[in-house]
């Protein structure tokens, strides 16, 4: 079952989609953040929908949403600042809707920064972070270095990424002692590799 809702954020309504598996696991929910709004990123991005499929296959209810100013969401792009507030609003709503106590948090590209930056805000919510999944995190462009990330963080990075410098991701992840799944000869958008990406997510779920 998939249903669209509107969640109240700081700058208005956020277009949100709830995907419920046929036999959902009790107490678990996943929230997925989409890539950069100014470069066509929406919750319908194919990497985002691939992540959704992986979680759904594992019986995890999934919430995706459009950041402010995207699709039918109110507001305007805020360079990654207000978008963190958007993510917190959607996570809070997702927990209330599902009564979940365990959260899977994921993001692709720009969305991976928002997901990572949101971790510090989770202590105010009644939830345990099961896993943080960062796909092609733009460590060269956003202040990832200042973030304190959990030990259960997993990074997926293509080494032929034409948007995010892969070596910078590998160096950052090693410094943070973060698990990296490396995709050889793989572009930023995982062209031709989405099935492999889905399988990799499934194999590394905790």
In the CATH hierarchy, the architecture is: 3-Layer(aba) Sandwich
SSE order in H/E notation?
Answer: EEEHEHEHEEHEH
Main sheet overview: 8 strands, mixed
How many extended strands?
8
Unreliable stretches: none
The geometry reads as: globular
Number of domains: 1
Q: DSSP strand (E) fraction? A: 25-35%
Estimated structural class: alpha/beta
Helix share, percent: 25-40%
| Number of H/I helices | 5
CATH fold topology: Rossmann fold
CATH superfamily: Alpha/Beta hydrolase fold, catalytic domain
CATH domain class name: Alpha Beta
Q: State the end-to-end CA separation.
A: 24 Å
Mean pLDDT: 97
- C-alpha-based Rg, rounded: 15 Å
Could you give the order of strands across the largest sheet? Answer: 1-2-4-3-5-6-7-8
Tell me what the structure shows.
The chain is of the alpha/beta class and 206 residues long. The protein has one domain: 3-Layer(aba) Sandwich (Rossmann fold). The chain is built from five helices and eight strands. Strands 1-2-4-3-5-6-7-8 form an eight-stranded mixed beta sheet, sandwiched between helices. Helix 1 packs parallel to helix 5. The longest helix is centred in the middle third of the chain and has 17 residues, at 82-98. It is globular. It starts with a strand and ends with a helix. The relative contact order is 0.15. The mean pLDDT is 97.
